[in-house]
């Protein structure tokens, strides 16, 4: 793989994605991983990410300089570039002028990692510290007003560095630079793609499963559907999907899964109606992580109970169901703190919320993948667009979109409001522009309204349409006013108890996409 060493940047994952877009497999590792351990992964190239620290401050994240003499090509980006300069004897100091955002870089030598670059490049920067002079043996490739050395290289040692962020779209030639580094400087072929992932995973799943029975929890979302289709390709009839209706789904979803998915894939499906069970377990729970734990736990227990039925229907008496398929994606792993060193922001139920005494072994064939890769695989596996292009919906469903205690009445109310918002957004042709649009019920908040000359004291609904590439960062979608007006009018007219509709205009960060 290509290793992306994470120095605590919000961009490290983005770098890993860009490498995959260049059709080269990449993995994130924390900077705290010993260099020997990194090298044991036999990396073909290493990219050092940016980070929030200043290299010369005490406690700033370091890396063993051995990494620069291991014979593996290294590209340092922003903080990673400064670490490289600092460790190898260059001078790094507070910049005479910090540069944040769009910055013009003057290219002094369009060579090596900047081969073919125009004389000036528009770049995106974020630094208050600059490399004043390059280490011995390096040639300076570019400078900006605030960075005397904005890019440097020593091709004889395979070392390259840039002050700017080539991974963000605001650096128009950024992807070019990453591809030049990977394909030309490091000589890596561009052969990583959806078919390759499928073949690789099919072989791995077969080897792992043998002749055991496998179940997969289907949520109706893209991830579990693609995971199921992939496992089905590998082991066919040994797979049974279990669809738990936990009562936290959206309008029409149960039918959609029961009919559309089965029609598209021919996979065996057992549907379990556990709505009352979940509601009972969730009684009194208000705190988001508490709700997630309850839902995660109940999910697994429901699967365990479904085992007997799975075995009976598979005609595999005497055998046990040994494996559980989960549609966990790479961002889930990283955000749940599984990406080592990353903070636990929310324990997504399909990762952190699993009970410890789980009796299944997990199969997570999408664990290293990003959403766009999962969609490409889904299409390659023959899933229809309605499944592949469904907007993301969290496993705990509407349960984490009712702020406050979950009751049947509140669920029904939110289900209706959500259906209206989805219908109007679809009608306006916005489905693919919007990454997802959580509709949130602030159940314990009340405000005064007036409807039909009567005072009302109802709850507000929040619309949270966002645009995003991978849910790691997001911006609020600029939905046209008349579409918002149509949604607002319909919700207040058709959902008794709702007297206010508000728009959430916060990006992520600082907010998350969901309210819980
Ligand atoms: P946040 O709210 O963390 O959401 O910005 C990022 C993405 O993850 C989804 N999400 C979840 N998915 N279980 C899931 O399966 C969860 O507990 C969960 N919480 C958030 C969210 O819808 C968004 O796509």
| Helical stretch tally | 14
List low-pLDDT spans: 338-347
Number of strands: 21
CATH superfamily of the largest domain: HUPs
Report the mean per-residue pLDDT as an integer: 90
Number of domains: 3
Active site: 78, 165, 167
Protein name: GMP synthase [glutamine-hydrolyzing]
GO cellular component, one term: cytosol
EC number: 6.3.5.2
Task: Give short descriptive properties of this protein.
516 residues, alpha/beta, Rossmann fold, GMP Synthetase, Chain A, domain 3, 3 domains, nine-stranded mixed β-sheet, 21 strands, binds xanthosine-5'-monophosphate, GMP_synth_C
Report on this model:
The chain contains 14 helices and 21 strands. It has 516 residues and is of the alpha/beta class. It has a nine-stranded mixed beta sheet, with helices on both faces. Helix 7 (253-265) links the parallel strand 11 and strand 12 (268-273). The model is unreliable at 338-347 (pLDDT under 50). Bound molecules: xanthosine-5'-monophosphate. Xanthosine-5'-monophosphate (XMP) binds at residues 292, 346, 348-350, 392, 394-396, 436, 471, 508, 512-514.
What is this entry, summarized?
Helices cover 33% and strands 24% of the residues. By secondary structure, the protein is an alpha/beta fold. The protein folds into three domains: 2-185, Rossmann fold (3-Layer(aba) Sandwich), CATH 3.40.50; 194-388, HUPs (Rossmann fold), CATH 3.40.50.620; 407-503, GMP Synthetase, Chain A, domain 3 (2-Layer Sandwich).
């Amino acid at each position: 793989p290509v290793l992306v060493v994470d120095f605590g940047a919000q961009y490290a994952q983005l770098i890993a994605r860009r490498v995959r877009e260049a059709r080269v497999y990449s993995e994130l590792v924390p900077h705290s991983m010993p260099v020997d351990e990194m090298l044991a992964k036999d990396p073909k190239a290493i990219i050092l990410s940016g980070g929030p620290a200043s290299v010369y401050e005490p406690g700033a994240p370091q890396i063993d300089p051995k990494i620069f003499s291991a014979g593996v090509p290294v590209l340092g980006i922003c903080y990673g570039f400064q670490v490289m300069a600092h460790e190898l004897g260059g001078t790094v100091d507070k910049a005479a002028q910090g540069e944040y955002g769009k910055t013009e870089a003057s290219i002094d030598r369009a060579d090596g990692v900047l081969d073919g670059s125009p004389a000036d490049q528009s770049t995106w920067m974020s630094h208050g510290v600059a490399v004043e002079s390059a280490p011995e043996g390096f040639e300076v490739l570019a400078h900006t007003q605030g960075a005397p050395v904005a890019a440097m290289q020593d091709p004889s040692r395979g070392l390259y560095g840039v002050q700017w962020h080539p991974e963000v779209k605001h650096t128009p030639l950024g992807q070019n630079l990453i591809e030049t580094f990977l394909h030309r400087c490091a000589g890596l072929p561009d052969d990583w793609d959806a078919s390759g992932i499928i073949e690789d995973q099919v072989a791995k799943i077969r080897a792992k499963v043998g002749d055991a029975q496998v179940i997969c929890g289907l949520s109706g979302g893209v991830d579990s559907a693609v995971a199921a289709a992939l496992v089905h390709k590998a082991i066919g009839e040994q797979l049974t999907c279990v669809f738990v209706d936990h009562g936290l789904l959206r309008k029409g979803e149960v039918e959609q899964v029961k009919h559309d998915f089965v029609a598209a894939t021919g996979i065996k499906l057992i549907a379990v109606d556990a709505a009352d069970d979940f509601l009972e377990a969730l009684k009194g729970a208000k705190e988001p992580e508490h709700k997630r734990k309850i839902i995660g736990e109940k999910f697994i227990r429901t699967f365990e109970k479904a085992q007997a039925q799975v075995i009976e229907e598979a005609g595999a008496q005497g055998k046990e169901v040994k494996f559980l398929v989960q549609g966990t994606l790479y961002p889930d792993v990283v955000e749940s703190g599984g990406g080592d060193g990353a903070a636990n922001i929310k324990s997504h139920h399909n990762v952190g919320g699993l009970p410890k005494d789980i009796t299944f072994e997990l199969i997570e064939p999408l664990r290293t993948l990003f959403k766009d890769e999962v969609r490409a695989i889904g299409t390659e596996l023959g899933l229809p667009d309605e499944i592949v292009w469904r907007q993301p919906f969290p496993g705990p469903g509407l349960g984490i979109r009712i702020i406050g205690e979950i009751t049947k009445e509140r669920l029904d109310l939110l289900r209706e409001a959500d259906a209206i918002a989805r219908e109007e957004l679809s009608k306006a042709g916005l489905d693919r522009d919007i990454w997802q649009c959580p509709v949130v019920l602030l159940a314990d908040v009340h405000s005064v309204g007036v409807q039909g000359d009567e005072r009302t004291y109802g709850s507000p609904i929040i619309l949270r349409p966002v645009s995003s590439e991978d849910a790691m960062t997001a911006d609020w979608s600029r939905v046209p006013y008349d579409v918002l007006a149509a949604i607002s009018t319909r919700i207040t007219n058709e959902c008794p108890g709702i007297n206010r509709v508000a728009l959430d205009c916060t990006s992520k960060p600082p907010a998350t996409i969901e309210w819980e």
